[in-house]
Amino acid sequence: MLLLFEQFLNGLQFGITLFLLSAGLTLVFGIMQVINLAHGSFYMIGAYVGAAVTAATGSFLLGLLAALPAAGLFGMAVEWLVLRHLYQRDHLDQVLATFGLIMFCNELVRIIWGRQPLFMDVPPWLAGNVEIVDGLLYPVYRLAVIATGLAVALLLWFLFTRTRLGMQIRAGASNREMVAALGVDISLLYTLVFGLGALLAGLAGVMAGPILAVESGMGESILILTFVVIVIGGIGSIKGAVIGALLVGLVDTLGRAFLPVLFRLLFASATADAAAASLSSMAIYILMATVLIWRPRGLCPVQSA
Amino acid sequence: MKRYLSAFVAILLLSGQALAGEPVKIGMITTLSTKAGYLGEDIRDGFQLAINQEGGTLGGVAVELLVEDDSAKPEKGKQIAERFAVKDGVKIMTGIVFSNVAMAVVPKVVRDGTIYLSANAGPSKLAGSLCHPNYFSVAYQNDNLDEVVGRYVSDAGYKNVYLLAPNYPAGKDHLAGFKRFYQGELAGEVYTRLDQSDYAAEIASLRAAGPDAVFFFLPGGMGINFLKQYAQAGLQDSIPLFGPAFSFDERILAAVGEAALGVKNGSQWSHDLDNPANRQFVEAYRQAYGRTPTLYASQGYDTARLLASALKTTGGELGDLEAFRKELQRADFESVRGNFRFGNNQHPVQDFYIREVIKTADGYTNKTLQKVFTDHVDAYAGECTMK
Question: What is the ipTM of this complex?
Fold first, then answer.
């Protein structure tokens, strides 16, 4: 039971990281109709800048403070230099261009920081484990990640439902011509949305830094899951991104944790291990397929013109 | 004009070659790009160091090292090998880092009469059923570094070990290598997704299984992720970790930091092995490149030194391949590992050690703890029909 709870927390934490990445991606995809494969690169840049500044100053907070604007500004620069010219093109051109950006960014961080992965540790004030309930120790840092993610989700909710900017963004998602006709500078709005998405990806990157290897190409493996999240959640919907990310995080983690146990009750050991390993890698894709059969536009579809 | 220019260039090239007296060309196919690019870089630098120490020759014979990046892709490795053989007339190749690339390249080139000296990859097929007179492994057979840990863990009295590796052929091979010499019980055997980043679920299950030790094979970034998360879960001090040397070179250790301290790993070489050849090599490598050599660098260096020994006695004459192979088989060179000779399948018969990750003033590195195997022969030698 305790193990189930612990794995549940692990799934939650993984889901939250995915949410930070998918929130930006789903906005860009839903509002701007742009497929941005380079979203994982913003995550990587956040992690690299965070790790480098943390190493130079010795302060995780400074690293965090440097990484967020770095990822955000880099995202805005990419929008301004590359993607802006592709809005009218079809998705294939966007895929090609942003795929090129992935390679460009991977090589860029290799040129700047070298091939060696960077070192980044948990800040001392978040190190160690805390006993949540009797007998269950859980890393403080992972709890902090969960808390940060929930706070960001609340902030985004506030931004979208309670502010003028949020209203414009939502309006831009449903009918951009009308919004532009009403005098809103839609291209500035796009740049801002893109920057916000990149910033959130950067945040996910810095927070992943102490847990994962900060290395070139770290964005790609997580990008695939991010796409699964936004397809499950419904493209363009923040609420969908929250639900989708938590679902994917939980299904993936619980699948990896308990499928082997379950299979070992049913089959002989060797077959059980092999089958469980294969099935747990497929679990989230099965989830995606099921959701899409049931709701072809995702769990929280957004109406868009 | 263009025609004159190219004629001029051709003359320049030809005369240059004539002056140098036809150097022996060595084709190095290795991985220089992608995340794993540092592996190829180290193999190349180790190899180049041996050439530089002899002033551009190996065994007194002028050599020309051609290096190409395979991006860790089998098909690209094949293309490079083809180009080396046809366009450059290369007769000696080396350098491949990854076993899947080696399996795509080696069987064909050795069949076509090229000598291939492996400076890293040692897939089981090439040691067993596909062994070939033109193929020499100067590194190891892949399972060796796991076998030594298996024996050590058994000898140290651990009886309930948890195993972890990625779900792909090499992952299964490495765990099989461990199990070949480990005699206790298995608390669990888990295959994770290749390129998985978060191991929280596996670590929680592992803790619940209550093993007395953990053996893992997770190369590259996966190993960094796992080590960090394992320490963060507070298990570093309670359940000891073991693994093959791949996750513990100085470059990876710098990225893992404290979390790797105390982990014991198996290797056929370490920078602190006390023999004259090694002392000289480590010193020279540090001086040339400003960093401590890794396992891969040592293998690149040994490959070049082995080649030098054969070039020396044959005077660089590659026309008689049979004679050249005989010289290679003798392995008459001072290996930085100490003991080194070839078995019947032309794989090393060598000693294996257990090392421990420690912290020094220069950062994190390995300290040799003890020799576990002496003159160890790989498990596939019997399947090889040579000799």
Answer: 0.85
